[in-house]
């Protein structure tokens, strides 16, 4: 009976040691779990802040693109008006040439209109390039947002 008690006490001691070891492991795992939760929360907050920053940039770029588009439309209208004016100037020039009266004045007017048209055309092209650049920037932001969504999906799948 003493021997059996000694064996049982030995088993109890071993089980207590095992229990304490497992309790330590459990505490360590709980601590690690808490640290991971905090880390994930911080990453989520950082990601949210980045998304908000990207959204703000996207809104700003959208405003710029709309402004550039409006400017380009206005320049196209101005260009069309100047082209019509140029056509009228050319017709006037031909009429004056046919009549041989005021030929030099008509030529000068046509040249001025042509210079204005060239200036507006140059300005229109620059505005259109800016519009294209803004569209490319918007595409880049859209791709970035798609990437963020994929990262979020991968993170959620990994949990």
UniProtKB/TrEMBL annotation:
GO CC list: centrosome; ciliary basal body; early endosome; midbody; recycling endosome
Alphabetically ordered keywords of this record: Coiled coil
GO biological process: positive regulation of cilium assembly; positive regulation of protein localization to cilium; regulation of cytokinesis
Keyword Coiled coil in annotation: yes
Entry keyword annotation includes Coiled coil: yes
InterPro entries with a match to the protein in the record: ENTR1
Coiled coil: 12-101
Assigned protein family: Belongs to the ENTR1 family.
Protein name (record): Endosome-associated-trafficking regulator 1
Name of the gene this protein is made from: Sdccag3
């Amino acid at each position: 009976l003493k021997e059996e008690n000694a064996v049982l006490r030995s088993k109890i001691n071993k089980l207590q040691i095992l229990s304490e070891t497992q309790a330590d492991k459990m505490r360590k795992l709980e601590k690690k779990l808490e640290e991971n939760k905090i880390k994930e929360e911080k990453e989520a907050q950082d990601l949210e802040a980045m998304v908000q920053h990207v959204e703000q940039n996207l809104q700003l770029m959208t405003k710029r693109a709309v402004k550039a588009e409006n400017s380009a439309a206005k320049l196209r209208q101005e260009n069309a008006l100047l082209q019509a004016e140029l056509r009228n100037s050319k017709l006037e020039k031909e009429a004056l040439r046919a009549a041989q009266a005021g030929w030099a004045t008509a030529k000068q007017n046509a040249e001025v209109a042509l210079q204005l048209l060239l200036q507006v055309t140059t300005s229109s092209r620059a505005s259109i390039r800016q519009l294209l650049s803004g569209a490319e920037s918007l595409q880049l932001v859209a791709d970035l947002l798609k990437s963020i969504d994929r990262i979020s999906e991968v993170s959620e799948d990994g949990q």
